[in-house]
Amino acid sequence: MQDMSLESSVPSNKPSEKMRVVIATSNEGKVAEIREALSGLGWELLALSDPSLPRITLPEETGTTYEENAALKACAVALIAGLPALADDSGLEVSALNGEPGVFSARFGNLDSANGRNLHLLEKMRGKTDRAAKFVSVLLLAYPDGYLESYRGEVEGSILEGPRGRDGFGYDPLFLLPDGRSMAELSVPEKRAVSHRGRALEALKAAHAAGAPKREVTRLE
Ligand code: ITT
Predict the structure, then answer these.
(1) Which domain holds residue 167?
(2) In the structure, which protein residues have their CB atom closer than 6 angstroms to any atom of ligand 1?
(3) Residues of the chain with pLDDT under 50
(4) Model-level pTM?
Protein backbone atom coordinates (compact mmCIF):
# COMPACT_ATOMS: atom_id res chain seq x y z
CA MET A 1 0.00 0.00 0.00
CA GLN A 2 1.39 3.38 -0.96
CA ASP A 3 0.24 6.93 -0.34
CA MET A 4 0.52 9.33 -3.27
CA SER A 5 -0.19 13.02 -3.02
CA LEU A 6 -1.73 14.51 -6.13
CA GLU A 7 -2.83 18.06 -6.69
CA SER A 8 -6.14 18.96 -8.25
CA SER A 9 -8.03 22.19 -8.59
CA VAL A 10 -11.01 23.19 -6.48
CA PRO A 11 -14.23 23.07 -8.52
CA SER A 12 -17.37 25.20 -8.21
CA ASN A 13 -16.51 28.59 -6.66
CA LYS A 14 -14.98 31.06 -9.11
CA PRO A 15 -12.13 33.06 -7.56
CA SER A 16 -14.08 36.32 -7.87
CA GLU A 17 -17.19 34.92 -6.15
CA LYS A 18 -17.82 34.90 -2.42
CA MET A 19 -17.69 31.27 -1.31
CA ARG A 20 -21.08 30.27 0.14
CA VAL A 21 -20.63 27.83 3.02
CA VAL A 22 -23.34 26.22 5.14
CA ILE A 23 -22.64 25.98 8.88
CA ALA A 24 -23.69 22.38 9.52
CA THR A 25 -24.70 22.59 13.17
CA SER A 26 -27.88 22.94 15.18
CA ASN A 27 -25.93 24.43 18.11
CA GLU A 28 -26.43 28.22 18.23
CA GLY A 29 -23.31 28.67 20.37
CA LYS A 30 -21.17 27.03 17.70
CA VAL A 31 -22.83 29.15 15.00
CA ALA A 32 -21.94 32.35 16.87
CA GLU A 33 -18.32 31.25 17.39
CA ILE A 34 -17.86 30.15 13.77
CA ARG A 35 -19.38 33.37 12.40
CA GLU A 36 -17.20 35.54 14.63
CA ALA A 37 -13.99 33.66 13.85
CA LEU A 38 -14.48 33.51 10.09
CA SER A 39 -15.85 37.03 9.61
CA GLY A 40 -12.65 38.23 7.90
CA LEU A 41 -12.53 35.40 5.39
CA GLY A 42 -15.00 36.88 2.92
CA TRP A 43 -17.25 33.80 2.91
CA GLU A 44 -21.02 33.99 2.95
CA LEU A 45 -21.93 31.80 5.91
CA LEU A 46 -25.41 30.30 5.81
CA ALA A 47 -27.23 28.79 8.78
CA LEU A 48 -29.05 25.48 8.28
CA SER A 49 -32.30 27.41 8.57
CA ASP A 50 -31.38 29.79 5.72
CA PRO A 51 -34.51 30.20 3.55
CA SER A 52 -32.47 29.65 0.35
CA LEU A 53 -31.65 26.09 1.45
CA PRO A 54 -33.80 22.95 1.29
CA ARG A 55 -34.98 21.58 4.64
CA ILE A 56 -31.97 19.85 6.19
CA THR A 57 -31.95 17.47 9.15
CA LEU A 58 -28.55 16.52 10.56
CA PRO A 59 -27.82 12.77 10.51
CA GLU A 60 -27.53 10.63 13.63
CA GLU A 61 -23.97 10.73 15.02
CA THR A 62 -23.09 7.05 14.75
CA GLY A 63 -19.31 7.49 14.52
CA THR A 64 -16.82 6.60 17.22
CA THR A 65 -14.45 9.51 16.55
CA TYR A 66 -14.88 13.28 16.25
CA GLU A 67 -13.66 13.04 12.65
CA GLU A 68 -16.29 10.46 11.70
CA ASN A 69 -19.14 12.41 13.27
CA ALA A 70 -18.00 15.73 11.82
CA ALA A 71 -17.73 14.08 8.38
CA LEU A 72 -21.23 12.58 8.71
CA LYS A 73 -22.68 16.04 9.45
CA ALA A 74 -20.65 18.00 6.90
CA CYS A 75 -21.10 15.51 4.02
CA ALA A 76 -24.85 15.16 4.55
CA VAL A 77 -25.33 18.93 4.48
CA ALA A 78 -22.97 19.48 1.52
CA LEU A 79 -24.84 16.87 -0.53
CA ILE A 80 -28.31 18.21 0.28
CA ALA A 81 -27.40 21.90 -0.05
CA GLY A 82 -25.08 21.47 -3.04
CA LEU A 83 -22.65 23.82 -1.27
CA PRO A 84 -19.54 23.39 0.89
CA ALA A 85 -20.57 22.68 4.48
CA LEU A 86 -18.61 23.19 7.69
CA ALA A 87 -19.34 20.91 10.65
CA ASP A 88 -17.82 20.78 14.12
CA ASP A 89 -17.72 17.71 16.31
CA SER A 90 -16.38 18.35 19.74
CA GLY A 91 -16.24 17.05 23.27
CA LEU A 92 -14.87 17.25 26.76
CA GLU A 93 -12.31 14.63 27.85
CA VAL A 94 -11.85 14.24 31.60
CA SER A 95 -8.73 12.41 32.81
CA ALA A 96 -10.27 10.99 36.00
CA LEU A 97 -13.14 9.58 33.90
CA ASN A 98 -10.79 7.87 31.44
CA GLY A 99 -11.49 10.46 28.77
CA GLU A 100 -15.27 10.45 29.18
CA PRO A 101 -17.59 11.87 27.97
CA GLY A 102 -15.44 12.53 24.83
CA VAL A 103 -17.23 11.80 21.58
CA PHE A 104 -20.41 11.18 23.59
CA SER A 105 -20.37 14.61 25.29
CA ALA A 106 -23.74 15.63 23.84
CA ARG A 107 -25.36 12.48 25.29
CA PHE A 108 -23.51 12.24 28.64
CA GLY A 109 -25.67 10.33 31.13
CA ASN A 110 -28.37 10.12 28.42
CA LEU A 111 -29.41 13.59 29.53
CA ASP A 112 -31.08 16.03 27.16
CA SER A 113 -30.20 19.37 28.77
CA ALA A 114 -26.77 20.98 29.13
CA ASN A 115 -27.63 21.79 32.73
CA GLY A 116 -28.46 18.14 33.44
CA ARG A 117 -25.20 16.98 31.87
CA ASN A 118 -23.24 19.52 33.92
CA LEU A 119 -24.84 18.28 37.15
CA HIS A 120 -24.08 14.70 36.08
CA LEU A 121 -20.43 15.65 35.48
CA LEU A 122 -20.17 17.33 38.90
CA GLU A 123 -21.64 14.23 40.53
CA LYS A 124 -19.14 11.95 38.76
CA MET A 125 -16.28 14.25 39.78
CA ARG A 126 -17.32 14.46 43.43
CA GLY A 127 -14.28 13.73 45.66
CA LYS A 128 -11.84 13.44 42.72
CA THR A 129 -8.55 15.27 43.18
CA ASP A 130 -7.37 14.83 39.59
CA ARG A 131 -9.59 17.37 37.80
CA ALA A 132 -7.59 17.67 34.55
CA ALA A 133 -9.63 17.87 31.36
CA LYS A 134 -9.45 19.05 27.79
CA PHE A 135 -11.84 20.22 25.12
CA VAL A 136 -11.36 18.90 21.57
CA SER A 137 -12.88 20.27 18.37
CA VAL A 138 -12.67 18.78 14.88
CA LEU A 139 -13.86 20.93 12.00
CA LEU A 140 -14.71 19.25 8.73
CA LEU A 141 -15.22 21.29 5.57
CA ALA A 142 -16.97 19.06 3.01
CA TYR A 143 -17.41 20.03 -0.62
CA PRO A 144 -20.38 18.69 -2.63
CA ASP A 145 -17.99 16.57 -4.74
CA GLY A 146 -16.90 14.67 -1.62
CA TYR A 147 -13.58 16.40 -0.96
CA LEU A 148 -12.86 16.97 2.74
CA GLU A 149 -10.64 19.31 4.73
CA SER A 150 -10.10 18.62 8.44
CA TYR A 151 -8.83 20.91 11.23
CA ARG A 152 -8.37 20.06 14.92
CA GLY A 153 -7.97 22.17 18.04
CA GLU A 154 -7.58 21.36 21.73
CA VAL A 155 -7.39 23.27 25.01
CA GLU A 156 -6.32 21.94 28.40
CA GLY A 157 -7.89 22.96 31.69
CA SER A 158 -9.65 21.48 34.69
CA ILE A 159 -13.14 20.81 36.03
CA LEU A 160 -14.46 23.27 38.61
CA GLU A 161 -16.37 22.20 41.74
CA GLY A 162 -19.35 24.29 40.62
CA PRO A 163 -20.46 26.47 37.67
CA ARG A 164 -18.92 29.89 37.03
CA GLY A 165 -19.84 32.46 34.38
CA ARG A 166 -22.85 33.14 32.17
CA ASP A 167 -21.47 33.10 28.63
CA GLY A 168 -20.62 30.27 26.24
CA PHE A 169 -22.63 27.05 26.24
CA GLY A 170 -22.52 23.40 27.25
CA TYR A 171 -19.76 22.53 29.72
CA ASP A 172 -18.20 26.03 29.60
CA PRO A 173 -19.27 27.02 33.17
CA LEU A 174 -17.40 23.99 34.58
CA PHE A 175 -14.19 24.37 32.57
CA LEU A 176 -11.38 26.29 34.26
CA LEU A 177 -8.61 27.68 32.06
CA PRO A 178 -4.99 27.92 33.27
CA ASP A 179 -5.38 31.73 33.59
CA GLY A 180 -8.02 31.31 36.32
CA ARG A 181 -11.11 32.16 34.27
CA SER A 182 -13.87 29.71 33.45
CA MET A 183 -14.69 29.30 29.76
CA ALA A 184 -18.14 30.80 30.51
CA GLU A 185 -16.51 34.02 31.72
CA LEU A 186 -15.18 34.78 28.23
CA SER A 187 -16.77 36.81 25.44
CA VAL A 188 -16.96 35.14 22.01
CA PRO A 189 -13.70 36.79 20.78
CA GLU A 190 -11.93 35.94 24.06
CA LYS A 191 -13.07 32.33 23.80
CA ARG A 192 -11.88 32.17 20.18
CA ALA A 193 -8.38 33.22 21.25
CA VAL A 194 -7.95 30.29 23.66
CA SER A 195 -10.49 27.59 22.91
CA HIS A 196 -10.36 24.26 21.08
CA ARG A 197 -12.80 25.51 18.43
CA GLY A 198 -11.00 28.84 18.15
CA ARG A 199 -7.75 27.00 17.44
CA ALA A 200 -9.32 24.75 14.82
CA LEU A 201 -10.98 27.78 13.22
CA GLU A 202 -7.66 29.66 13.17
CA ALA A 203 -6.06 26.70 11.37
CA LEU A 204 -8.89 26.71 8.80
CA LYS A 205 -8.55 30.46 8.38
CA ALA A 206 -4.80 30.24 7.86
CA ALA A 207 -5.24 27.49 5.25
CA HIS A 208 -7.79 29.62 3.35
CA ALA A 209 -6.08 33.00 3.79
CA ALA A 210 -5.03 33.10 0.14
CA GLY A 211 -8.08 31.30 -1.26
CA ALA A 212 -8.99 27.60 -1.12
CA PRO A 213 -5.86 25.53 -0.41
CA LYS A 214 -4.48 23.20 -3.08
CA ARG A 215 -6.08 19.81 -2.80
CA GLU A 216 -4.12 16.89 -1.45
CA VAL A 217 -5.56 13.65 -2.76
CA THR A 218 -4.42 10.47 -1.10
CA ARG A 219 -4.66 7.37 -3.30
CA LEU A 220 -4.35 3.90 -1.81
CA GLU A 221 -2.67 1.27 -3.98
P1 ITT B 1 -24.24 19.75 16.45
O2 ITT B 1 -24.00 18.25 16.44
O3 ITT B 1 -25.55 20.13 15.83
O4 ITT B 1 -23.08 20.52 15.91
P5 ITT B 1 -24.01 19.45 19.35
O6 ITT B 1 -24.11 20.43 20.47
O7 ITT B 1 -24.81 18.19 19.46
O8 ITT B 1 -24.38 20.24 18.01
P9 ITT B 1 -21.64 17.80 19.30
O10 ITT B 1 -22.38 16.63 18.76
O11 ITT B 1 -20.31 18.11 18.73
O12 ITT B 1 -22.50 19.13 19.14
O13 ITT B 1 -21.53 17.61 20.86
C14 ITT B 1 -20.58 18.32 21.57
C15 ITT B 1 -20.93 18.31 23.03
O16 ITT B 1 -19.82 18.86 23.75
C17 ITT B 1 -22.14 19.17 23.36
O18 ITT B 1 -22.81 18.65 24.48
C19 ITT B 1 -21.53 20.51 23.73
O20 ITT B 1 -22.29 21.23 24.64
C21 ITT B 1 -20.17 20.11 24.30
N22 ITT B 1 -19.21 21.11 23.85
C23 ITT B 1 -18.57 21.17 22.65
N24 ITT B 1 -17.88 22.28 22.53
C25 ITT B 1 -18.08 22.98 23.65
C26 ITT B 1 -17.67 24.23 24.08
O27 ITT B 1 -16.95 25.04 23.32
N28 ITT B 1 -18.06 24.63 25.29
C29 ITT B 1 -18.82 23.85 26.05
N30 ITT B 1 -19.30 22.66 25.71
C31 ITT B 1 -18.93 22.22 24.50
Answers:
(1) 18-212
(2) 25-27, 30, 58, 61, 88-92, 105-106, 114, 135, 168-172, 183, 195, 197
(3) 1-12
(4) 0.92
